[in-house]
């Protein structure tokens, strides 16, 4: 990775310096294995039950897997994930908008280095307002519109009280946005401690990585619990 990238290897090097423990060739092998295993379930599901919807969501899942687990990643590589997310923006506007906000936030250290703070703030606010007005994202947080109805029904077989998923997602969104805003303000207004010169960029990296892991799980849940796509495709054929 270059500088501070919001993938697994950079984010968790805070706790474990893998590059100091393992030789480079072994790091590459581990990276390949993790990447392959993380994208395998979605690819198997798409192969067994091909559908246009499954293809779009599998594009997102695979792109995100490569970003999170690849051996060499640049900060701007998250844009290769954002592109397929734009393809599902009309299907899951709330989660897609959230992901695109996080993907922009993950590039904050790079954008500040290029002195692009003002364009970042203006375009991010414009994008958020556009999504809020065009897609009414806060009105589309039900289990059906989050594409989590099948998953929720499966969970409720074992936990009948599991009826608050929509509310949880809304709370997580607001916590996420507040965290990103606070970290942006801290990064812009405060100087990091002399002993920890990369403190804010590391925090941005780590918080973004946690978000991306959450989104990887979310997109894979949609893929694995989607049975309509495969049936509809068979009817068309």
Automatic annotation (TrEMBL):
InterPro entries listed in its UniProt record: Glyco_trans_ALG6/ALG8
EC category name: transferase
Involved pathway(s): Protein modification; protein glycosylation
GO cellular component, one term: endoplasmic reticulum membrane
Membrane spanning residue stretches: 26-48, 54-71, 78-101, 116-138, 159-187, 199-225
Compartments it resides in: Endoplasmic reticulum membrane
An MF annotation (GO) of this entry: dolichyl pyrophosphate Man9GlcNAc2 alpha-1,3-glucosyltransferase activity
Similarity-based family: Belongs to the ALG6/ALG8 glucosyltransferase family.
Database matches in PANTHER family: DOLICHYL GLYCOSYLTRANSFERASE, DOLICHYL PYROPHOSPHATE MAN9GLCNAC2 ALPHA-1,3-GLUCOSYLTRANSFERASE
Protein name, entry field: Alpha-1,3-glucosyltransferase
Organism of provenance: Crocuta crocuta
Gene this chain is encoded by: Pgm1_1
């Amino acid at each position: 990775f270059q500088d501070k990238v919001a993938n697994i290897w950079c984010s968790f090097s805070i706790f474990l310096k893998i590059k100091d423990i393992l030789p480079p060739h072994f790091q590459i092998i581990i990276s390949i294995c993790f990447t392959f295993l993380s994208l395998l379930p979605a690819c198997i599901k798409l192969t067994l039950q091909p559908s246009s919807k499954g293809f779009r969501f599998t594009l997102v899942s695979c792109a995100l897997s490569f970003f999170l687990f690849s051996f060499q990643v640049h900060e701007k590589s998250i844009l290769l994930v954002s592109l397929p997310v734009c393809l599902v923006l009309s299907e899951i506007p709330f989660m897609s908008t959230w992901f695109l906000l996080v993907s922009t936030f993950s590039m904050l250290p790079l954008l500040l280095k290029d002195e692009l703070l003002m364009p970042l703030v203006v375009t991010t606010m414009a994008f958020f307002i556009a999504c809020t007005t065009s897609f009414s994202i806060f009105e589309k947080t039900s289990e059906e519109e989050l594409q989590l109805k099948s998953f929720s029904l499966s969970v409720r077989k074992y936990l009948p009280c599991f009826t608050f998923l929509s509310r949880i997602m809304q709370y997580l969104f607001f916590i996420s946005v507040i965290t990103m805003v606070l970290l942006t303000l801290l990064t812009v207004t405060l100087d990091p401690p002399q002993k920890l010169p990369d403190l804010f960029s590391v925090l941005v990296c780590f918080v973004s990585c946690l978000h991306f892991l959450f989104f990887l799980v979310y997109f894979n849940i949609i893929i694995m619990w989607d049975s309509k796509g495969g049936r509809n495709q068979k009817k068309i054929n």
